[in-house]
User: Fold this.
Amino acid sequence: MKRKRFYNNKKRNQKWTEEVQGRKIDFADKYVYSGPYSDKFDSLRPKEKKRKRVVKEKLRLIFKRAITVLCALAVVSCGYTVMDVYMQRNSMPENSGKIQEEDVLPGIANVNLNFSASYVETASLDNSSMLDAVISSATKNKSNAVFFDLKREDGTLAYNSSLAAVSSYNAVSLPASDLKGSVQKLLSNDFMCIGGICCYKDNVAPYSSSDSALKAQNGSYLTDASGSAYLNPENEYVYEYIKGIVTDGAEAGISVFMLSGCTVPTGNGSEKDCCEALVEKLSNDFQNSVKFVFPVFVSVTEQSVSSYSGIREAVDKIIEEKPIGENEIYVFSTDFEEERLREVLLEKNIKRYIIKKQVTQ
Assistant:
């Protein structure tokens, strides 16, 4: 009997139903130290130490870049510094030919003030009962400012001054007993304080110190039509005297000064206005911390008017004949009730004025 063969050739050269996966097995696979085909002793073998090696070329490149950045910053900084110095020394001034902002100093001198003031005698500034009456009257008249004299037309001072010239002239007469305290109380009650200074017209100082007097070429005193003497505007001692009065008022709290008596006789029948030169020097010395105004004296009395319509006509005539400038104020002299005049002034839109009540004999 023929023996059956276990293998035959019927399916020779035919592919399996499953695709072959993986890779061919290598005889040295068990010696591979890492990966999925490592042997079981891989974890027991000593690990090779990994040392951090700094590549010299890379370190050199980093250092070179850092040096380049620092040098660039240094060059830019020096360039800006040199250019700034050059521009400051050689550049043209801003807005050349125009008034610079630095030329206009801040302060009350550059503020356009509007006020309706009542005139009071300086002797009533006692910081007590008389001052309370002044405040009550000003409130009743709807005033927002109070005017009083510091130096009168006759040359006397209306307050106790520590100036050496005042004691030598014996110029103090009927002074305020507490000027500073009264001014501070008025300010706390929302009243502006205006101090009046009659600058050069003076019948006290010229006769006490002839060197300060305004004289003619023959040495005689120059006087006006009323016989009043004058201080010499060109005398530096006279300027220091007026400046000292302003300083005393400013230290008391006064920020607005009305300067009068600035026009002096020349001896040939004419007059010289010294207001502008005086204010310029004072403004420079006080750094525009105080304001100087000038009076325009007018009069409205019961003899000239008899009714409200008459007051209106009188005020219209004053506005037409004597208009005021930026640093000028009307000083109304009247002998009737302030309220009547204030109503007309408000109606005529007059915002800067002082009402001085005449004393009836």
Summary: The two ends are 180 Å apart (CA to CA). The longest strand covers residues 291-299. Residues 113-357 form a domain with the TIM Barrel fold (CATH 3.20.20.80). The CA atoms of residues 76 and 82 lie 10 Å apart.
